[in-house]
Every structure is written in C-alpha cells, then in structure tokens.
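Annotated sample (chain length 228).
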Amino acid sequence: MGRMIVFLLLIFIESAFQSKPLDYHRLSSEEFVRLRVLQQPINVYEPDYELLDATIFHLTNQERINRGLKPLSYAVGLHLSAQNFAKDMIQMDFYGHNHPYSPALATLNERVGFHTWEFPRKSENIGQYQVIDTPEQYCCRRKRDGSFEYMDCDSKHLFYPYTYEKFAQYAVDEWINSPPHRRAMLDSTFTHMGCAARLSKKPYQTCKAPYGRFVQNFGQRKESLSQN
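Output written by the structure step:
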C-alpha cells in the first residue's frame, strides 16, 4: 500500500511538472526555434502573447547571431515596457513612438523608467504588420456571422493567419531591411532586449485584415556603458 502511494505521488509530481508553462525566454534561441508550437497558425481571437513575444525576441537574436553579434539578454523591465506600449497602441488606437494619452509615459525613457533604471541608454523599434498572409492587393467578403474573410480577388482563394514563427519573422525582416531599425537591432553595444506585439482588438470586423503592433526595446546596462 505504501509503495502504491509513493508511486502515485511520483506520477502526480511528474504530471504537475510537465504541465508547468514553459518559460520561453529561458531557452537559447537555438532551442526555441525547434519548438513545434511555433508552426501553429495564430488564433487571432485568442493569441498566445507569451509565445509571440518570445518568438520576436529569439528571432531577433538569431539575426544577430547570424551576423556574428552576441545575442541580447532578456530583461523583464524592457519586456514590460514594450508589452504595455504595444497594448496601449492597440487599445487606444494610435501608432508612433510617443504616447499621446499618457504624459507620464510619453517617451521611451519614461516608459522604460517606469519599470527599471538599469538602462541609461535605450532604443526602440515599432512596426505594424498584417497577421493574415495576403498579397498587397486582396479582396474581402462578409460571412453569415457578420465577420469578414480575406481572399484572392480573382481565384477567391482564402488567406489565413501566419504561424507564430512566420509572423515574427516577417516583422524582423521588415526591420532588418529598414536602415534605422536595422541599426538598433544590430547595435553591438546593447546588452538587453524586450519584445512584444498585440493584435487588433476587433479582428475580422472590417474589410481591413487584422494586424499587430510590435515593439522592440533595447538597453545598455550602466556597467557596460562605463566600460566603453
């Protein structure tokens, strides 16, 4: 009887451990990109933001590694500032580097400073990218439930959301092909990073396909700054 109780207890502990959410930011970029969950299409109504944020983070580091640069370390404060700013841009419907509705969080310095004072030198990239994988020109039609679907104007072939990996890679590619954004991403003096994206608050409700607003926050720690 005692052995049976111990056996059942071990099974319970193992199952509890396996069900514990994976901390994506603790993985190396090489480990992260092998996760099968990255190939799942994004559920635009209920996106896994923890996964999406980490995907942007790790694919950005992959770009740095591929170009002979050190990967950036994860910083909770930078992640939170990016997360909250992306959320506000969606919920309050604005897009830009300055927050028009919160004077205390108007600038990057104020937004990051609300969470941490570790990084005297900072930079920010933002982007807005469509979550449905369509060409530049596409058509839409309203379904019986009132929502819209998106299709090729001639063939009527339907378009669907990106996977987590493809959506994040699309954003990273757009930034890397833009000189100002590229400079921040490949700056060898930055030490830490936090990334986030938030999606349209009312997806599929208009002929315009749902989109995401992305934020990358970069920082250089004080001790690293003093060594340069």
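Annotation: The longest helix spans residues 2-19.
Annotation: The chain has eight helices and seven strands.
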